[in-house]
Amino acid sequence: MSNQLIRRLLHSKFFVCGGVIVCIVVLMAIVSPYLVVHNPELPNLQNRLRPPDFFSHGWSGYVLGTDAMGQDVLSRLLVGSRYSLIVAVSAVLVSALIGTAAGLIAGFYGGWVDNLIMRIGDIQLSIPALLLAIAIVAVLGPNLFNLIIVLIITSWVQYARVIRGSVLVIREQDFVAAARLMGGSDAWIMVTQILPNVLTPLLIVGSQQVGFMILMEAALSFLGLGVQPPTPSWGVMIADGREYISNAPWVVLAPGIALMITVLGFNFLGDGLRDVLDPKMKV
């Protein structure tokens, strides 16, 4: 990475703000096993709906209070961040792989191959993502693995459309024609000549999609179709605490604010990367 690019990134307010938030969230998820004092899955009805003590009893107290089952909100918040990031990053990586392959093939070959892949994508885009995810989870069953599969199915099209658009331009360049004259196979040309030139839009879309995946995971978990109790999840915490929002608002506010800040951070990071790396790109 050149010094000029680093300076441009550091001068982007969106990139710096999003990068700081993302680093904090990732660090929190990594070190959460060492920070958790109370078992996030063990109920303790004697301490149910206990208000936050905000470090008045030290880290061993109930810093953000307890929920209706007497579980420590802070412990569940920290552990829940791991599941949110694992689901989101896994879904983004696999969907980016599938979408990139589909976009490369569609853009490189064109014709009926392009029409077939893009029409499949158009059909999927005509169905609201959340509605499609609910239908798929209802068939496969609610668990962590199926949740990741659902998110992959509902998000690969974004990568395919962006990559295809870039490939349509790049395939007409002189270096691609030179590679053909040298006897390069289609697969070799796509992987070695075209793929490196579409990494920038791929990186931008991927960074923006992480926040969306986290939000989708929380929405499905809220509906009972994602991470299943007693496993901590921000969506599950919000769903369980909505009945107590009037007399115990901390049960909902803590995961809600964490979810909002995290999604905002990844969106800022993606916008900053787009503005610096490809200002003309609109996703």
Describe the structure.
By secondary structure, the chain is mostly helical. It has a domain at 85-226 and 254-277: MetI-like fold, CATH 1.10.3720. 70% of the residues lie in helices and 0% in strands. The protein is built from 11 helices and no strands. The protein has helices spanning 3-10, 13-35, 73-109, 111-125, 129-140, 144-170, 174-181, 186-194, 199-222, 234-241, 250-277. The mean pLDDT is 87.
Q: Work out the radius of gyration.
A: 22 Å
Major pleated sheet: none
Average pLDDT taken over every residue: 87
Low-confidence stretches: none
Which assembly state applies to the chains in this document?
single chain
Give the number of helices.
11
Q: Which shape, going by the Cα principal axes?
A: elongated
Any guess at the CATH architecture of the domain at 85-226 and 254-277?
Orthogonal Bundle
- Give the helices and strands as they follow along the chain: HHHHHHHHHHH
CATH superfamily of the domain at 85-226 and 254-277: MetI-like
Helical content stands at: over 70%
Q: Decide which structural class fits the backbone.
A: mainly alpha
Strand-residue proportion: under 5%
CATH topology-level fold name of the domain at 85-226 and 254-277: MetI-like fold
Terminus-to-terminus distance = 24 Å
Number of E-state strands: 0
What is the CATH class name of the domain at 85-226 and 254-277? Mainly Alpha
Summarize the model shown.
The protein is mainly alpha-helical and 283 residues long.
Key features of this structure:
single chain; 283 residues; mainly alpha; MetI-like fold
